[in-house]
Design a protein that fits this description.
The complex is a heterodimer of chains A (about 260) and B (about 180). Chain A is of the alpha+beta class. Chain A folds into 3 domains: about 5-50, no CATH class; about 90-145; about 150-255, Immunoglobulin-like, CATH 2.60.40. Chain A has helices at about 10-15, 20-35, 35-50, 60-75, 90-120, 125-145; strands at about 150-155, 165-170, 175-180, 190-195, 205-210, 215-220, 235-240, 250-255. Chain A has a 4-stranded antiparallel β-sheet with strand order 1-2-3-6, covered by helices on one side. Chain A has a 4-stranded antiparallel β-sheet with strand order 5-4-7-8, with no helix packed on it. Chain B has 8 helices and no strands. In chain B, α2 (about 25-45) crosses α4 (about 75-95), α5 (about 115-130) crosses α8 and α6 (about 135-145) crosses α8. Chain B is globular. Classes of the chains: A alpha+beta (about 260), B mainly alpha (about 180).
């Protein structure tokens, strides 16, 4: 535990799912903004996993193995699986907040489009502009919600706090949404760059970005990704701010395979 | 963390990668490796073999559907599966919807459970540590972990102050951690 001793006992209870009520709500609020307590929570869950080893019993019956293998044979990789109900977490919050936000944008843009078309034909150019935004919003929503969208978590080494990134990639529409947190502050002459690496290994630049004061950053539908390109890996590098940015020259920050 | 079996069987990370590619044999290998842990935890919580088999099925289907949810940089796959099994079993015991998606379960543990010898050695160590704890502390920890009781429920059941329950749980987990760091 590094500081925040006042949360130590609540964290232990939370790790076991035994903390309820206001204490749980308050702790979850604190966890949203405290990486050291999140790390301690992970460690406490690890301690709980050790506790699980105290459970000894008979091996599962052979029929359980057959049941599982029959089930996965009926559900080959890539088949659509209904997502279970999820409870609050930061990534889910990002994803759903973005999706809901974009959905509202879509509704608003649709209303505006209808109004403009009926009222003034001369505003066609404005409608055209709105349509582009609408299409962009649709791509974001599709990328976040389509069953075939690939979700990749990018992680770095064990230096706390852990930088983490998540890429949502919809290949057939070149839709890419990337969000990251716990990023280290940038030196003045540096910038982060996201790369999409196809199977041929030649990285495709997928956007430059800077984290905010809390280490959060995002890249949404960067231009320049060829339609239909397959992604094998996503990676983030630290590059010189003044370029060049057509290929990675700097140091690797994190990467994740599809 | 190697997570490899001394007999030369593939490490967990390699099997998880194969599962991502849809390799059913890799799934069978991981099932053979970790189903005893998962089943034992579920059975200990639920006390019913049929219900424990359902949890076992659910945990491995979750892994099949979403192998990327496991973050290999944070530790052992066996420990991660044990935590998911325990949480799912508690959810089943309390007849509630799953409280956490498996992607939300991030744990950090260095103990390698990939080989049968590792698992047996660690299990023996945990039982030894629990056996050496004061009875009240061990009982409190087990009520929280294997019965899924909240600290207020434990306090009501034992008649102990809430603060005492909190302290015992934290101290119990700390004792376990220190013993495995030695």
């Amino acid at each position: 535990m590094t500081g925040h001793e006042q949360y130590a006992e609540d964290l232990a209870l939370y790790a076991l799912g035994s903390l309820q009520g206001d204490e749980r709500v308050n702790l979850e609020k604190h966890l949203d903004s405290c990486s050291s307590c999140r790390q301690e929570l992970e460690a406490l869950r690890g301690d709980g996993a050790l506790l699980a080893l105290a459970a000894t019993g008979p091996k599962p019956p052979q029929r359980s193995r057959k049941r599982l293998m029959d089930a996965i044979a009926k559900e080959p990789r890539g088949s659509s699986v209904p997502a279970p109900a999820r409870h609050f977490n930061l990534w889910a919050f990002f994803g759903w907040a973005a999706a809901i936000g974009m959905f509202l944008v879509v509704i608003q843009l649709r209303r505006q489009n209808t109004s403009l078309q009926i009222a003034v034909n001369s505003l066609g150019s404005v409608v055209g502009s709105q349509t582009i935004e609408l299409e962009n919003a649709r791509r974001v929503v599709d990328t976040l919600t389509a069953p075939e969208a690939q979700t990749v978590t990018l992680v770095a080494g064990k230096t706390p706090p852990q930088p983490q990134g998540k890429a949502f990639y919809l290949r057939n529409r070149s839709g890419l949404v990337f969000v990251a947190n716990n990023l280290a502050p940038l030196p003045p002459d540096k910038i982060y760059e996201l790369w999409l690496i196809p199977p041929d290994g030649k990285p495709i630049a997928a956007g430059l970005f800077k984290p905010d004061a809390r280490g959060n950053a995002s890249v949404i539908n960067p231009p320049g990704i060829p339609a239909g390109v397959e992604a094998k890996t996503f990676a983030v590098t630290l590059e010189a701010a003044n370029g060049p940015h057509d290929a990675p020259h700097g140091t690797g920050v994190m990467a994740g395979g599809v | 963390m190697s997570s490899s079996d001394p007999k030369g069987t593939p490490p967990d990370s390699q099997l998880v990668s194969a599962i991502r590619a849809g390799d059913q044999n890799a799934m069978a290998a991981l099932y053979d490796r970790y189903s005893p842990i998962v089943y034992s935890v579920a059975l200990r919580v639920l006390g019913d073999t049929g219900a424990a088999e359902d949890v076992l099925q659910d945990v491995f289907m979750q892994l099949w559907r979403n192998p990327s949810a496991f973050d290999s940089s944070r530790g052992s796959l066996g420990a991660w599966l044990a935590v998911i099994a325990r949480n799912r079993a508690i959810d089943a015991l309390r007849k509630r919807r799953p409280e956490n998606d498996i992607e939300d379960i991030v744990i950090s543990v260095e103990t390698d459970l990939a080989s049968e010898a590792d698992r047996a050695r660690s299990a023996q160590k945990v039982r030894g540590i629990l056996g050496s704890m004061p009875a009240a502390q061990r009982s409190t920890l087990e009520m929280a972990y294997f019965e899924g009781l909240t600290h207020t429920e434990i306090a009501a059941k034992t008649g102990e102050p809430l603060g005492t329950i909190k302290t015992r749980i934290r101290a119990g987990l700390t004792t376990l951690r220190k013993a495995f760091q030695e």
